[in-house]
Amino acid sequence: MASTKINTYHCLCSTLLLATTHTLSSLPRRSSSGSTGLDNALILPLPASPPTFEESSENNDDLPAEGYTILLGLNRDSRPTLIRREDGFEKRYLFKCERCKAVAGYEILGEREEMDTDGDGRANAEYQGRAMYLLPGGMMSTEIMKKGGKIGEEEVDVRNARVAVFE
Question: Which residues form the signal peptide (predicted)?
């Protein structure tokens, strides 16, 4: 059974945000080219369901082939935020650090997710495979945090998006 490397990432305030089998700096980004005004966010695939482990199976892979991610220190806003774009509007659920409340990413409210299905003002909580968009410069790997390196304000510039994740 091959060992899978699990990467952990922290907010700039040092709170553990997520653990994933993905290396975030290698993930695709939302395009920021042209006049669409996209934010160059990393596209992190979230699996449809947690992996199942069967003790009886000898050929059981540890994690799904597409990877796996666990969100730890992130709180999802209960209400979507409406973003105006040149090509229309986009509804996003913001994910914030539970400690400092900095926005680390968002999830786009799609057509398949139903709003207010039971009249309580909350979206349907059924977990489906979807994508989370991580904002550039908003988190660092555990290795960078252990080194104790200082991250300057010029390095965390969302508009230029030079650094996606400090790894």
Answer: 1-26
72 and 18 in contact (C-beta within 8 Å)?
Answer: yes
Per-residue pLDDT tens over the stretch 92-145 = 999 999 999 999 999 998 744 544 444 444 444 444 568 899 998 888 888 888
Assess if residue 64 is contained within a domain. yes
Residue at 165 is within a domain: no
How many residues are recorded in the chain? 167
Instruction: State the total domains in the chain.
Output: 1
* Residue-number span of the structural domain to which 27 is assigned: 7-147
Q: Which long-range contacts (CB under 8 A, 24 or more apart) does 154-157 make?
A: 156/12
